[in-house]
Amino acid sequence: MTSTTYPGEYGGATGVEGTFVFSSPVPGAASYTYHFNDDDPVTVPAGADGTASVRYTPPHRDTNYLTVQTTFTDGTTSEELFWSFMVNGNGPQVECTPSEVPAGGEFTCTLAPVQVGAQSYLYQWGDGPEQALPMGSDRTATITLTMPADVDYAQTLSTWSVDGSGARSDVDYTSIYRTGFAASPRGTRMT
């Protein structure tokens, strides 16, 4: 099995279609029966070259699974082959400067879309309310926020994009650190 979009390590993104090519090292492949994650099995015929390709759009980020079994022209079958592949989240890309600020200090974050069809953004600063953030003509958005005085060492900025149907992307979490504390951690970003 091969896929240029989803090669095994992280690739593609939630909601991004990829092509998966099946082949057999043993000649005489007639068809391939496969299923992704917990989907129902599907059988596709092998071409004259013994390969078959299918398209699939992963529904969630991180680990996804593909199981494939070859049926040969003589009716025998191969053992099932299990393959896992990693899918990137489709939350917005977030770049913030600076990443450390004093209490009352401001920082600016720029969001860029990953979600297919993204039309706007949402964000939440710490435990505050969700806020809408319109997308500019370049499909990015910029926000300027202030570090609260009551934050011990870091506060999280949660961001999403929203497509035309109202579907939200995966959430992206970015930590902004407050300066003025000994041994403050640096550089943590979770997606």
Automatic annotation (TrEMBL):
Name of the protein this chain belongs to: Ig-like domain-containing protein
UniProt superkingdom: Bacteria
